[in-house]
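Final report, Chapter 2: Outcomes

The project's central promise was a pipeline that accepts a single protein chain and returns its three-dimensional structure in a standardized token representation, suitable for archiving and comparison. That pipeline is now operational. To close this chapter, we reproduce one record exactly as it appears in the project archive, with the input sequence first and the structure output second.
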Amino acid sequence: MAEKKREKRDPEQRRAEILAAAFACFAERGFAATRMEDVATRARIAKGTVYLHFPDKERLFIELVSGIASPILGEVGSVVLNETIPARSVVSMFYSLFKRQVLETERRHLLRLILAEGPMFPVVTEFYYREIITKGLSILRTVLARAAARGELRNPAVADVPQLVMAPALMSIVWATLFEGYEHLDTEKLFDAFLDTLFVAEGGTI
């Protein structure tokens, strides 16, 4: 498809336009059903222009997912450096960022696609695990180990399974995908209740 008027674009602007088009296609069609031609058509550019910026569909998806998770991890990671902040506050911040930047936006569709189609595309899954999950788990291990040492955890064994902290975030994606049409899930209550199961009340006891 010929690019409209062949207007020149700043490379970063063009890249952003391609990513926006890819996001729309993935959300509508799914990862497996989306072709590079579909992305080019949505962006109103030639297919070759897409390949100039992204070598394949997997790289397009990886860039989109990284753009969602990296800011969240960066913000939470910077807070972890301040050892005076209670662990509950750090985890609560993660849930708030996840709710605001993922659940309440169209970005939730990307995580839904990873859950649904990830096993068919190991390159995408491996990247997500290596660059996002492992970094997130590293942050959580630091937070939970500190919490265990301070007596902030109801069950210190939680420090050995940081994946548990991610459980309500993942469940909220699954629920929104499968069951929201039947019953609404109040994610704010979900996260608050889960925090209460993890941490001792401030100034309180188990």
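Archive annotation: The chain has nine helices and no strands.
This record, like all others produced under the grant, will remain available to the consortium after the project formally closes.
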